[in-house]
Design brief:
This protein has 185 residues and is an alpha+beta fold. The protein contains 1 helix and 10 strands.
């Protein structure tokens, strides 16, 4: 008898084809699983390292003491550390920011040779000094009102109060006040 080779059934060929594709799919799922595991561990390590860095903005305090009221003579005193002008007139003490409202440069105070009478808000006001911004040429009257240059608004005035514990003046630079504000001290 002659040996006969029987043809493989059609489903057997399909199984052979499936077994050839199975390692590719298995390999893909294996790599996908490891990739997900590595990504998850990397995310946890990043979060743990990021937690060690504080979310703190290191800025100077917005409320600070500047000294005793007696230490400020009549006229205007510049406090460089705080970029602030402290003024004393017959009505009391006041604080004007030295930060230009255009781009944040520090304005310089210019004493006038003789007082000028200007209208500010419709009222005639005697001006003894002006503030000039050296960066872009903004100019402000002695009360901080802008009158020339690109500055969009007047200089800020800050609230002053006397500390109850030691009698020093406290400036609150987060609380702007009207240009008529004075601390009677």
């Amino acid at each position: 008898m002659k040996s006969m080779k029987l043809p493989a059934p059609p489903c057997a060929e399909g199984n052979a084809q499936n077994t050839l594709e199975a390692p590719g799919r298995r390999k893909f799922l294996y790599r996908l699983g490891w990739g997900a595991l590595v990504a998850g561990i990397a995310g946890q390590v990043f979060a743990a390292v990021r937690a060690l860095i504080p979310n703190v903005l290191y800025e100077p305090p917005r409320t600070f003491k500047i000294g005793l009221p007696e230490s400020f003579a009549d006229g205007v005193t510049y406090l460089e550390d705080h970029r602030l002008f402290i003024g004393r007139d017959r009505l009391g003490l006041y604080a004007i920011s030295a930060v230009c409202t255009h781009l944040g440069c520090t304005v310089k105070m210019m004493n006038l040779n003789q007082p000028e009478l200007v209208k500010i808000g419709g009222k005639p006001t005697e001006i003894l000094q002006e503030f000039h911004c050296p960066c872009h040429g903004s100019k402000y009257y002695g009360d901080g009102t802008n009158y020339a240059g690109p500055a969009p608004r007047p200089l800020d005035w800050f609230r002053l109060e006397v500390s109850p514990d030691d009698g020093q003046i406290i400036v609150d630079s987060s609380d702007t006040v009207h240009h008529d504000f004075r601390l009677k001290a």
